[in-house]
Design a protein that fits this description.
This protein is α+β, with helices and mostly antiparallel strands and 395 residues long. It has ten helices and ten strands. The chain has a four-stranded mixed sheet with strand order 1-4-5-8. Strands 2-3-7-6 form a four-stranded antiparallel sheet, with no helix packed on it. A two-stranded antiparallel ribbon has the order 9-10. Helix 6 (231-267) packs antiparallel against helix 9 (349-359), helix 7 (279-307) packs antiparallel against helix 8 and helix 8 runs antiparallel to helix 9 (349-359). It is globular, with a radius of gyration of 21 Å.
């Protein structure tokens, strides 16, 4: 028998996350969006109450929550403000390669750093000439004795200006394409690491997105994650773990837009009745509700597979593609329900429409997700065979 009932602990966790999102995030979200303000105070509060670093295992000081537990948090944060939510949850993307490929010493050092203080880490994969085509990256890591020397530039790096360390992907064998990529941990204070540019964005304006430069950056060989030239596979495994959470955040955006549109439709009077009485509006509201519910179920399925120790590549791409596209569709329809007021910044839904757009772009565009889905459906892979498309577009 299939049981989709949350445990009492999961219900409490979701309530904690919702209350935090309502009181600490949503109440200031539109101010942070307008001014593109960095949410340091909110980060410190979230760290204090235990709503960050859900994925860090207990043996390294973390809560060791299940993937589904993390998704419950991310949906609520997306409902509150996905820009602030992205700032709060991005540690999961950077820390996953460390959890999967780091030595015990590296795990203790860098995961412990995130638990001890409200510090941040960033995932550095995308480059100016290597977005969806990860194999075209130009960042190089050259072995010199017991060190690696890294040179290159990364773009669209979430929390890049504020991170204490980075998970960096670089070519160690440039002639092998994606099979010549390795992954490393690079502390922020290493000589040669520079934040070059902070992006001014359409949406998620409370989230920091930066360009990071690595110039003759020397790191000890112990900071290699996994085996040399196996970084691409590590990226695949990482994104299988993190895409359910990104999809959950998209569900949260869609849910927020749906709720605003639903409530407004019952208040706005046209032709002598609330516009919710008109069938055209009713159908839009009904479709919004269905997309929220369907997206959440896809998220839960993709998370539950991982929690059961099963590969979730197909399920994660289903969830990411559908939830992201649905968030954009719901937010756009919410603006339509508001009519002319939806286009004015005084009303809430235009922000949600701007925020939703990035969900179709980062951690793999919706088009990349379709490529992954098509490959999985048409040419099913062995469990240990990475997809050449699965890592595309991650930050």
């Amino acid at each position: 028998m299939v049981d989709l009932t949350l445990t009492d602990e999961q219900k409490d966790l979701r309530e904690l996350a919702h209350n935090f999102a309502e009181k600490e995030i949503r109440s200031v979200a539109w101010d942070y969006d307008r001014d593109a303000t960095w949410p340091q105070e909110i980060i410190e509060k979230a760290h204090e109450v235990g709503l960050m670093n859900a994925e860090v295992p207990e043996e390294y000081g973390g809560p060791g929550l299940h993937v589904l537990d993390g998704c419950l948090i991310e949906e609520e944060f997306g409902w509150g403000c996905s820009g602030i939510g992205t700032s709060l949850m991005c540690n999961g993307l950077a820390s996953a390669p460390v959890i999967l490929g780091g030595s015990e010493e590296v795990k203790k050092e860098f995961l412990g750093m995130l638990i001890e203080e409200p510090k941040l880490a960033s995932f550095c994969l995308t480059e100016p000439e290597a977005g969806s085509d990860v194999g075209s990256m130009r960042t190089r890591a050259v072995k010199q004795g017991d060190k690696y020397v890294i040179n290159g530039s990364k773009v669209f790096i979430t929390n890049g200006s504020h991170a204490s360390w980075y998970t960096v992907y670089a070519k160690t064998d440039p002639d092998k394409g994606h099979k010549g990529i390795s992954a490393f941990v690079v502390p922020r204070d290493t000589p040669g690491v520079s934040v070059m540019k902070k992006e001014d964005k359409l949406g998620q304006r409370a989230s920091d997105t930066a360009q990071i430069q690595f110039e003759d950056v020397e790191i000890p060989e112990e900071y290699l994650l996994g085996e040399e030239n196996h970084g691409f596979k590590l990226a695949m495994m990482t994104l299988d773990r993190t895409r359910p959470g990104v999809a959950a955040m998209a569900v949260g955006i869609g849910r927020a837009a749906f709720e605003f549109a639903r409530d407004y439709s019952k208040e706005r009077i046209q032709f002598g009745v609330p516009i919710a009485m008109h069938q055209a509006i009713q159908f839009m509201i009904a479709d919004m509700s269905t997309k929220v519910e369907a997206g959440r179920l896809l998220v839960w399925q993709s998370a539950a597979l991982l929690d059961q120790g099963k590969r979730n590549t197909l399920a994660a791409s289903h969830a990411k593609r559908f939830a992201a596209d649905s968030a954009m569709e719901i937010a756009t329809d919410a603006v339509q329900v508001y009519g002319g007021y939806g286009f004015i910044t005084e009303y809430p839904v235009e922000k949600l429409m701007r925020d939703a757009k990035i969900m179709q772009l980062y951690e793999g565009t919706s088009q990349i997700q379709r490529l992954v889905i098509a490959r999985e459906v048409l040419m099913p892979r062995k469990v240990d065979e990475p997809s050449e498309m699965a890592a595309a577009g991650a930050n």
